[in-house]
Amino acid sequence: PGLERSPEIRPPEEQTMAIVRVAVAAPLPELFDYRLPAGWLDCEIGRRVLVPFGRGRRLGLVVDRQPESAVADHRLKEIEHCLDDGPLLTPQDLELLNWASAYYHCPPGEALFTALPARLRRADTDFKERRRGWRIPIDARAVDDGLLARAPRQRAVWSILQAHPEGIDEASLREQLGDCRAALRSLERKGLLEPASAEVPLDDGSPPSAGTPAPLPELNAEQQAAVDRIDQTLGFACFLLDGVTGSGKTEVYIRLILNTLARGRQVLVLVPEIGLTPQLAERFAQRIPVERAVLHSALAERERASSWLRAARGSARLVLGTRSAVFTPLPELGLVIVDEEHDVSFKQQDGFRYSARDVAVRRAQMTDCPVLLGSATPSLETLRNAELGRYRHLRLRQRAGGARPPRLLLADIRSQPLVTGLSHALLTRMGEVIEAGNQVLLFLNRRGFSPVLTCHDCGWISVCRHCDARMTLHRGRGRLVCHHCGDQADLPVHCPYCESPDLRPLGQGTERVEDSLRQRFPGIPLARIDRDSTRRRGELERVLTAAQAGAYPILLGTQMLAKGHHLPGVTLVGILDIDHGLYGSDFRAGERMAQLLIQVAGRAGRAELPGTVLVQTRHPNHPYLQQLLRKGYGAFAAAALAERADAALPPFSFQALVRADSREEQFALEFLERARGHAIALAHQGIQVWGPAPASMERRAGRFRAQLLLQSPERAPLHALIRVLLPALRGLSGNRRLRWSIDVDPLEM
Ligand code: ADP
Ligand code: ZN
Ligand code: ZN
């Protein structure tokens, strides 16, 4: 139905903008001109259109209108359909997307359509949804429900249906009665109800939470100072809220959100993880009585489109979402908040490789409103911006509500006997904590049973056929699984190499530590939290809620557990293996390690109970660990920044990666060699060209991966180079078996 609608006809004197410029939903660098069909006078900027393209038709978005085109008249095609009742994106939304598309050197069509919720990337929507429903047939309305006296479920359904003669959708019935499909079927068989589909508009709002909001705690002096500084800001400014874990950053957000809403503006809050949204959404729901919209990738397409439309139409005043929510149209935006700004998941790692944090800052600047970046462990980029005075540095040094900071201890595990990765020191403390009725959180960033299966006789190890990676042993599933490409294999009974039956797991994953803990602490409830154990929808929330209520004395998890969750009963945190973070090949490995350590540590002793963090390491004298332990994250970051300055690494220089991959090694390498030639010929002003070099995981999912690094002391010349380099690279890459892309400000090398 949405396809048939065409714009209304206006008097001929207005007929000037006959050409529309369209960003077509495809990874092509150009925009395309189309003619308006005869009789159409307009198709506004920001509207979606269907256009003939190649031999088919494509969805596109109007980004500009002009009286004429440089394309020869006979080659210009006509728009086929103009979708939507009005523009989906405003000129301001387009301005932001244009900027991002240019900055990340991503084709405009790809950038624009990445920003739209999936439902709106299809042409077949008219923003209505047909839902399955039921009603009582007219000739059955007079039936006496005494007939159903012995079928209480059916009678319950029947009485609701009687109250809705026009019909009711099945989802609402289920909300009221739970699963009532059997009762529905019986009633249908008796001829007492019939299907009735109900149409619901997609942007059907969720009503604002009823009741009085929970009272706000009184802010401490540092919190109040932060709120005042930001509230006094008129127009754009970027603030770093650098507050230790549990210092009450979220309370600062809530206060600022309320003040901004009171001024009649909308607020956008970005969080790194889907797992964090329910918790924050719940806290906002209790305190902020306005219509809210939540946006993340675990939502059904319909829900996402609904949130997006409600935000765009201004009915949702507070939008909480993950990465891509940064592009949500918000006509009255007055404040942007990025929580856990250091988190790498703000950077998209494929396609349109934008950083939602950096786009958020730019968006606030374009909107002329304040933006707040919050973290207990700010990224070195952000700290550098604060140092330079571009961002204003606000600090919360103390835990709110009287909670004490955790005590950090190192456990030297060199030549210590370990029980599945747990030292005697850690096990002893665990026993004490459990005895006292408190909780222990163990952190191990490796899921599965064991990271590798090995042959005790010949040394064979389980490697992936497609990647430079080992297959992880998952005993629960009885499989070997590659965590990089997802390939799976049955557990071998004999060594595939020497046929020895003596195959042994080597090293620990969460599954194996769980097994061992269940033996060591029999009868003590334990929750394992990783991607495998929380696969089912809602499972993570369920376990976390129970954990918060103290249901599990032992919590064991991967980095899913490290982020933001408030676990008031935890008094001991054990970090089983920090060492792989100390010597990573990526120059950001140290920064990541420090952030992870501080974030995990932050789960301990958040309430009245003081906490202890025990870090197991074979490198207790490592300067990073020593600095973190003695002086905290701020001192660590200062030292790490000094090292980056010495090495001229970001944030003291700017980088872009040309990435390429192909099944055959030579294609990717040849392409990058030639790219290097072009880059060197075109580069000037101190730009360095490094490589080509193999990616840190050279082979992944059967493809060989390599990269060329461009680095520059200044941003502008780097971008100038990329602008001229890209057309040259497009000319080079005739090879269909080669994939390549450009990654501006790469976070993963
Ligand atoms: P952060 O976001 O920095 O980790 P939160 O905002 O979650 O910190 O605050 C940690 C805990 O302290 C929460 O339970 C919160 O309700 C409480 N809290 C925060 N600010 C105050 C305050 N001013 N007075 C009392 N309790 C507070
Ligand atoms: Zn063998
Ligand atoms: Zn693999």
From TrEMBL:
Protein name: Replication restart protein PriA
Biological processes per GO annotation: DNA recombination; DNA replication initiation; DNA replication, synthesis of primer; double-strand break repair
InterPro entries: DEAD/DEAH_box_helicase_dom (IPR011545), Helicase_ATP-bd (IPR014001), Helicase_C-like (IPR001650), P-loop_NTPase (IPR027417), PriA (IPR005259), PriA_3primeBD (IPR041222), PriA_3primeBD_sf (IPR042115), PriA_C (IPR041236)
Domain Helicase ATP-binding: 230-396
NCBIfam families: priA (TIGR00595), PRK05580.1-4 (NF004067)
Reactions performed catalytically: Couples ATP hydrolysis with the unwinding of duplex DNA by translocating in the 3'-5' direction; ATP + H2O = ADP + phosphate + H(+)
Helicase C-terminal domain span: 477-647
Listed cofactors: Zn(2+)
Family per record: Belongs to the helicase family. PriA subfamily.
Oligomeric and partner information: Component of the replication restart primosome.
Annotated binding of Zn(2+) 1, by residue: C455, C458, C495, C498
The keyword Nucleus appears for this protein: no
Key words of the record: ATP-binding, DNA replication, DNA-binding, Helicase, Hydrolase, Isomerase, Metal-binding, Nucleotide-binding, Primosome, Zinc
SUPFAM superfamilies listed in its UniProt record: P-loop containing nucleoside triphosphate hydrolases
Protein function: Initiates the restart of stalled replication forks, which reloads the replicative helicase on sites other than the origin of replication. Recognizes and binds to abandoned replication forks and remodels them to uncover a helicase loading site. Promotes assembly of the primosome at these replication forks.
UniProt-annotated binding residues for Zn(2+) 2: C464, C467, C482, C485
Principal EC category: isomerase
Cofactor note: Binds 2 zinc ions per subunit.
Cellular component terms (Gene Ontology): primosome complex
